[in-house]
Request: fold
Amino acid sequence: MTSTEDRLLGPEQVREKVAEQLRRSRARSDALTAAVDDDDLVRQHSKLMSPLVWDLAHIGNQEELWLVRDVGGREPVREDIDQLYDAFQHARANRPSLPLLSPVEARRYVREVRDKVFDVLETSPLEGRRLVEQGFAFGMIVQHEQQHDETMLATHQLRVGAPVLRAPDPAPATRPVKREVFVPAGPFTMGTSTEPWALDNERPAHRVHVDAFYLDTVPVSNGEYLDFIAAGGYDQPRWWSEVGWAHRQRAELFAPRFWERDGDGWVRTRFGVVEPVPVDEPVVHVCFHEAAAYAKWAGKRLPTEPEWEKAARFDPATGRSRRYPWGDEDPGPEHANLGQRHLRPAPVGSYPLGESALGARQLVGDVWEWVDSDFRPYPGFAAFPYREYSEVFFGGDYKMLRGGSFGTDASAVRGTFRNWDHPIRRQIFSGFRCARDASPAEAR
Ligand SMILES: [Fe+2]
Reply:
């Protein structure tokens, strides 16, 4: 029996798990929207983001569509607003001009939907239909809310004004001894066919061959990134791809987003706090092009998506792929910096208990890691339960991000979880680590 089969829950256990996760995600949405006043909730803090009140009602609307109407077979709560909160109908930049629910109405709406959902959860059979097996539809909605909570956290980071969010800092790091870990050549199992709440693009499990390579043990730090800046990395086209350099010129990039020069040094703004750039923290708020340019300057490259996942999941002792770098256990505070417990990445070298079998650290949590792969389906992919979750994005202008950030909830990231965004985006909590080929002698 595999460990995932061990993990299958009976209907009552599924109900308990779902209820607990629904409460946790709502507590976070409430906290992120209660932190600012109503004016702030309806304001657009950046053209890249929706007003926070849009995210809130959109969370409720998706929950209504899938859990109240589809799973529960109940009457609509507010069919009249479906169109307003359909992310495909309105670009983020246009959302503030829509006749959106006010903060009071949005809060009342999400509460009404949630009350019905708890009733549906109590009374629906959680079997007989793939959508509800192991509570999948509920898990999808929990992840959807948590994904929007991370988006709302990114909106908070873009917001101008006095700090309103607070959290303790992570503990100081234990520095790893090795700079790189060796990943041996050979096949491994990528993706999953058994993880109950895995989304369609993570499926199915399939074997992928990966050549031997070296991966940085930890993400690239601010200190290392400062060396790239000091060496004129932003001024030398030779480190950049053609598209990357064109973007660097057009967008006038000179440092990670939210950084500013301060005399001889640098400061950054983090949720309204201006502070010196901490050198031992993973760099965050860089776009794919910046990550790739740094890697080239460092004599390395970004890992591909299969390389990243093999380094994270492959256990050479058993030959199998783990659910998470540290094993099959759900993430705890000892494993990874997740869940907005801290409002910053932890210093590089943190979380020795979260180490992968091959010795890499902080693959899950801290910063999303850009990898050099496009968004494509795995062999045998089938859209489920709707094409708009993944399929419509395949082949678009995206690069993949893996592993989640300090802003990602544990329910919304796994060793197999795949995130994607435009390669120029950097309002997200994105960093990276480097890889390099192994020489033929090393690869043996
Ligand atoms: Fe959404």
Notes: The chain is about 30% helix and 10% strand. Residues 166-444 form a domain with the paralog of FGE (formylglycine-generating enzyme) fold (CATH 3.90.1580.10). The pocket of fe (ii) ion is lined by residues 58, 62, 87, 144, 148 (CB under 6 Å). The CA atoms of residues 175 and 310 lie 23 Å apart.
